[in-house]
Design a protein that fits this description.
Number of helices: 10
Number of strands: 10
Oligomer: single chain
Structural class: alpha+beta
Largest sheet: 4 strands, antiparallel
Order of helices and strands: HHHHHHHEEEEHHEEEEEEH
Shape: globular
Helix content: 40-55%
Strand content: 15-25%
Strand order of the largest sheet: 1-2-3-4
Radius of gyration: 22 Å
Distance between the termini: 30 Å
């Protein structure tokens, strides 16, 4: 995603420039920081030969705090050596480490999932308080990076950069606070309807933190409940639509190894769908019914009526048009039910 890369680029630029201060030219800190902030995501270029594997293997070792910490001094030594700045090695080490770690931590705040604790724990961290692309997070950092380049070493560039870091951090903290508040409201609304939810996910709709989507798995995994709530809503409780999860089909498809891997990666927030002679597994966390970002064709019905796994899973896009989706989001954001 280009805009997601922009966020990581300017975050890396801001953190690297703040760590190095006046020790190196601002333009060099901005460029190196942006490149370093982009490096962990280059694992997306690896093709594992299967759509589910390409999803679940992304944000793996390249985002693990242990490996990032281990590789940071090597990268710092290479940069310092290239510019004959061995005396700045420790400062470059700090800058590289902070840039790598903030990249991983920002990704962990999205719902996708980031394996921060590899090789000790494979379960991804997916806080889900920030959408993967949010201009209100990115713009302060972008302004700070531009100011550093325009200032050409003058103090106002560094001040703008620190302001950018501060504002983006406050916005991230705001998203956590809103998520915590709406999580409580969602659970209360579910309880009010007599729904005993096994799992509840509250995450922002695209590109903002005013409108949020709630997904609950209930009835012993039989049913999914989906609802939307906006900070602009009145005091009426959240309304939910019931969606069939088809756990029996999901369990049958889970004989396929990559399906089991997807269920583990998504913390079992998935459903199964059968369309004619094709069976799909859907990650419920990203998108909205019936348009999900990650829908995978995993099996076809054989001549004997049983489900036969495909040679490799395929990602299918069942999505509304961008303009239509954003138009709906804008109206719902302001409280239109």
């Amino acid at each position: 995603m280009i805009l997601d890369s922009v966020s990581q680029f300017v975050l890396g630029s801001a953190v690297t420039a703040a760590s190095l201060g006046t020790r190196v030219p601002a333009w060099r800190a901005v460029v190196y920081g942006g490149v370093l902030g982009t490096l962990p995501d280059l694992d997306i270029l690896i093709d594992h030969g299967d759509a589910i594997l390409n999803m679940t293997m992304h944000r793996g070792s390249s985002h693990a705090l242990f490996w990032l910490t281990l590789v940071s001094p090597v990268v710092a030594l290479a940069i310092a050596g290239a510019h004959r700045e061995r005396s700045l090695f420790r400062r470059w080490w700090l800058a590289v480490w902070l840039t790598f770690v903030t990249h991983a931590m920002l990704d962990a705040m999205t719902i996708y999932g980031t394996r921060l604790w590899l090789p000790f724990d494979e379960q991804p961290v997916s806080i889900g308080s920030l959408f993967v692309i949010d201009p209100l997070y990115t713009l302060p950092l972008l302004a700070g990076s531009v100011a550093l380049l325009v200032a050409r070493g003058r103090p106002f560039g560094r001040r703008w950069n620190w302001w950018g870091i501060g504002l983006s951090t406050l916005y991230a903290a705001w998203s956590l606070g809103v998520q915590l508040h709406l999580d409580g409201a969602a659970r209360a609304a579910l309880k009010g309807r007599g729904i005993a939810a096994d799992k509840v996910i509250v995450s922002p709709a695209p590109r903002q933190t005013v409108l949020w989507r709630v997904v609950a798995i209930a009835d012993n995994g039989q049913t999914i409940y989906e609802g939307f709530t906006s900070l602009a809503d009145d005091d009426e409780p959240i309304t939910f639509a019931a969606i069939e999860r088809r756990p029996a089909l999901l369990d049958e498809l889970s004989k396929i190894q990559v399906v089991r891997q997807l269920r583990a990666f998504a913390d079992d927030c998935v459903k199964a769908v059968a369309v004619e002679d094709e069976a799909f597994v859907v990650d419920l966390r990203m998108g909205a019914e019936p348009n999900y970002a990650f829908t995978f064709l995993v099996a076809r019905r054989g001549a004997d009526g049983s489900w036969q796994p495909t040679v490799a899973t395929e990602r299918r896009a069942f999505a509304v048009g961008e303009g239509q989706g954003l138009a709906w989001l804008w109206r719902r954001l302001w409280g239109e039910r």
